[in-house]
Amino acid sequence: MEIVIIGAGMGGLTTGIALKKFGHKVTIYEQTEKILPIGAAISLWSNGVKCLNYLGLSEKIAKLGGQMNDLAYVDGLTGETMTQFSLQPLIQEVGQRPYPVSRADLQNMLMDEFGREDIHLGKRMLALEQQEQRVKIQFADGSEVETELLIGADGTHSLTRAYVLGEQVQRRYAGYVNWNGLVDISEDLAPAEQWTTYVGEGKRASLMPVADQRFYFFLDVPLPAGLENDRSQYQSQLKQYFKNWCPQVQTLIERLDPQKTNRVEIHDIEPFLQFYKGRVVLVGDAAHSTTPDIGQGGCQAMEDAIYLARALQINTLGVEDALSRYQEKRNERTKEMVLRARKRCDVTHMKDEATTQTWYSELRQEQGPHIMQGIIHNIVGNVLD
């Protein structure tokens, strides 16, 4: 079948790879002139890694992934360890190690695997129209293409979603700003093989190991939306936001490169259950835009990719029947992930001070199993279990 994918992000590329493996002719159209990763890195939990393993990418993703053996929460003000434990029981239970990875490294690997010759850049979709068994797509440069199936992997601002739902839904501001980037691994920031999160005052400073001796870092601060975004002010602002925090966090702020640091106002979208209309279907953030608070955004896009490709392969009552089965399989799980991330976001970022202070107290009593069971609950239930 001829298939067009709009968007060359994680979801679009993984979907394209999966569909090609089943023999489909797939072309990706991306609106940007040059593909740049959105964000410095991504935490690929075991369900996302399993999707890539299923596509034959086990060795490649393992090379890109950081060695994350332990997890710790640290009091950001005092530097006192609140809880610290091995992730090995989690890995044993779910059957796969998680991998924090650089987004640029992951995106380049996926583009090479899909085939760069089938990715067309500078193609911004303006409109789409269904005509019997075909979908007609119009681009801003005046060109048009037709296809048997259109997959919208065009992200949180998805035009494809507006077509499927009949309206452009509004994003919801989650209440905090995230700065993220990469720094060299150094023991004066955190242990090299540990995911370390400094918490306090509804804020976070977190470090995760990725390949090539680097930490992926992010810093979260509850702030109003719409504040000025000036790179030259990043370090001075962060020093103020994290004033009186422990030396490790101060050192991180000193070492980050403002020119290579991303600043993002975090949003999500109210979950909805309609993922397709005719021969147009949604994957990834176009279908279920979520906050990054449980690390499942990219993983859920990869689950979409595998199940959509399999639904088209194993169901023979027609394309729309397969899309209906994909929708029924995916919409409740992804809705749950969006709402679970939203709940975690509110606790972490002190939407209610008493609730967050209770969480801090619980962290000091935590031995590992409760946190790991929460992560496992996110991982299990995917299409490959």
TrEMBL record:
Q: In which pathway does it act?
A: Purine metabolism; urate degradation
Q: Which InterPro entries match?
A: FAD-bd, FAD-dep_Monooxygenase_BioMet, FAD/NAD-bd_sf, HpxO
Hey, which family's this protein in?
Belongs to the FAD-dependent urate hydroxylase family.
Instruction: Could you list this entry's UniProt keywords, alphabetically sorted.
Output: FAD, Flavoprotein, Monooxygenase, NAD, Oxidoreductase, Purine metabolism
Supply the name of the protein. Answer: FAD-dependent urate hydroxylase
Q: Which SUPFAM superfamilies match?
A: FAD/NAD(P)-binding domain (SSF51905)
Which GO MF terms are attached to this record?
Answer: FAD binding; FAD-dependent urate hydroxylase activity; urate oxidase activity
| One GO term of the biological process aspect | urate catabolic process
Its UniProt entry gives the catalysed reaction(s) as:
urate + NADH + O2 + H(+) = 5-hydroxyisourate + NAD(+) + H2O
Its domain of life? Bacteria
